[in-house]
Amino acid sequence: MRQGSQLRDWTLLMLCNLIWASQYVTVKIVQEEMGPVFATFFPVTLATLLLMVILRRDLFPKRDLFTFFLIGVCGQIPAQLFVTWGVGLSLASNAALLALTLPIMTAIMAYFILGERMTVLRWVSFALAIAGAVECAGINWQELDFGSARFMAGSLLIFLGIVGSAFYNVYSKKQLKRYSPLQVQLYSYYAVFICMLPITLYTEPQGFLKLPHFSLKVWVGLVELAICVYFLSMVLFLSVLTRLDATQAGLSNYLIPFFGLLLAAALLHERLTTFMIIGGVLVLASTLLITVWEERLRSRSRSSATP
User: Fold this and answer.
1) What is the Cβ-side half-sphere exposure of residue 101, based on CA atoms within 13 angstroms?
2) What are the angstrom distances between the C-alpha of 109 and each of 113, 189, 307?
3) Residue extents of the structural domains in the chain
4) φ/ψ of residue 142, rounded to 5
5) C-alpha torsion 258→121→177→254, nearest 10
6) Structure pTM?
7) Cβ atoms < 10 Å from Cβ of 300
8) Which residues are within 8 A (CB) of 198 and not within 5 positions of it... i.e. 6 or more apart?
9) Which end of the chain is less packed: N or C, by CB atoms within 10 Å?
10) Percent of the chain at pLDDT exceeding 90
């Protein structure tokens, strides 16, 4: 029974990262007819409304008001808005390299906030994952430019977005002891809505006026972002966090570049190289090690320790 649970968690993490890999393509599509702020605010609002319908009898817990405000403002807003904004202002190679720091930032925060420790197996898993992700990320090492004032703002926004995402993943785990994944997601989205509504009205009010005129392609993209990215994937990820350490779940983010390559090959007919495939296999192996195999070792250790 426990083995089935481990494989289920691994499968859910695969699904989450596949959805997040598709996000970059979808965001580019919707930004053809709107700015980055509205492209973030509107689908998040749709996801919030969907969660409100599901939890229609659920009242906001006043005692944890500050905590969920902190998760939303310091976690969700940077993770969703800053990355979307920064990608358009930075080089693709800069963004790809910075994205590789997300699991590392998650592990660092999990150490200080949750007291999680790095085991030998986790170090091995991280080494395999980083090696594989570098092969899949498509980084042009000669193109990298973090010192230029032209790209510095975009790179900084991306990095702050990554820090926000890591903070959200780690700090949400503390709240999952008392609240369900749906509740954690909804309460943090309340803070996102309250903060981003005036920002959107000030910076991109034209987005609301253009709503009736968006093309079908853009509307499909907005709905996909709302339902798949901001609702389904986040709730699934939080549900896995109730059973796994944040460090374990965070390592799976190295699958995003690999799934991005698979989507590009399937939809855009881009060619997959042997090194890219090997890199993807390494990342898959690392996620299996740190989720399924580590949890099996834990179960065996608990069983042997039980009198």
Assistant:
1) 15
2) 6, 22, 35
3) 2-305
4) -75, -20
5) -10
6) 0.84
7) 10
8) none
9) C
10) 41
20/13 Cα distance (integer angstroms): 11
Contacts 24+ apart (CB under 8 A), 193-198: 193/41, 193/44, 193/45, 193/48, 195/72, 195/73, 195/77, 196/37, 196/40, 196/41, 196/44, 196/77, 196/81, 197/41
Tokens of 130: 């980083």
Per the CB < 8 A criterion, the answer to whether 189 and 51 are in contact is yes
d(CA 24, CA 221): 11
Amino acid letter for position 249 = A
Q: Which residue in the block uniquely carries the two structure tokens 């749709």? A: 46
For the beta carbon of residue 135, count every other beta carbon within 10 angstroms. 23
Q: What are the tens digits of pLDDT across the range 26-56?
A: 888 888 899 889 999 999 999 999 999 998 8
